[in-house]
Amino acid sequence: MYILAVIGNIFLIFLIVTERRFHEPMYVFLSTLALSDVLLSTATAPKMLAIFWFHSMDISFGSCVSQMFFIHFLFAVESAILLAMAFDRYVAVCHPLRYTTILTSSATGKIGIAAVVRSFIICFPFIFLVHRLKYCGRNIIPHSYCEHMGIARLACDNTSVNIIYGLTVALLSTGLDIVFIIISYAMILCTVFQIPSWSARFKALNTCGSHICVILMFYAPAFFSFFAHRFGGKTIPQHIHILVANLYVVVPPMVNPIIYGVKTKQIQDRVILLCSPISTHC
C-alpha cells in the first residue's frame, strides 16, 4: 500500500506539473494534496515496515518527537487543502462566471501558503508540550508510530495541558475545516437543485463526487483514532485502534489518486494519452 501510495501520488503530481491545462486551482490543490499524502505515508510507513520486517522497535526521543510533529503538521495541511478544494468546488458550481476572477493564480498561491503556515503555527507547540514533561522510566508506546498523546502518556507528570491543547487544536482547526466544508456543500446542493435540467444537475454533482469520497476516507478513520485514543479507554481493543490508525496513514494516500483518476475525465484522458504509445508499440 505504501509503494502504491508513493507511485500513484508522484505520478499524479507529474501529470499536473507537466500538462499545461492542469495549471488550474483545482489541480494545484490536488497536487498539493498528493504531495502531503506522500509525505504523510513516508513519515510513518517505513518505520512500520522496519518494525514488522526487522523487529526494529527502538526510536530515539528526538526522532519520535520529529515524527509526531510531521504527522500532525501534514494532517493539518491536508485538512486545510480539503477545505480549499471545497471552496474551489463552491465557486465553480455557485459562481461559475466569476471563477477565474475569484480563484486567480495569486489567490491560489496565498491559500496554499496560508494552509502551510496555519498548520505549522498550531502544531509547533506540540514539540514544547512533550519536552516540558518529566519522564521516569516508561518508554514503550503501544503503537507503530509516535503521536502527541502517545508520547505524553509516558510521562509521570500532569498532562492536562497536553490534553486541552490537543482537543482545542482538533476542534478549532480540523473541526472548523469540517464545518466550513459542510457549509460549502450545503450551498452547492442548494444551487444544484435549482438547476432545471437533470443532466446538468448530475454533471455538477459529479464534479464534487471524488472530493466527497476523499473527505470521507480522510476524516472518518482519523477522528475514530483521535477520539479512541483519548476517550476509548478499554472499550475499544488496542489492536483495533492500532489497525485503524495504521490504515488511515496509508489507505487514503493509496486510494486518492485512483479516485481522482476514475472520477476526473481530464486526468483519464491524459493517462490514456501517455499509455497509448506503449500500447501501440506492444
TrEMBL record:
Membrane topology: Multi-pass membrane protein
GO cellular component, as recorded: plasma membrane
Entry GO MF terms: G protein-coupled receptor activity; olfactory receptor activity
Domain G-protein coupled receptors family 1 profile intervals: 8-260
Task performed by this protein: Putative odorant or sperm cell receptor.
Compartments, as annotated in UniProt: Cell membrane; Membrane
Protein name (database record): Olfactory receptor
SUPFAM superfamilies reported in the protein's UniProt record: Family A G protein-coupled receptor-like
Family of this protein: Belongs to the G-protein coupled receptor 1 family.
Keywords of this entry: Cell membrane, G-protein coupled receptor, Membrane, Olfaction, Receptor, Sensory transduction, Transducer, Transmembrane, Transmembrane helix
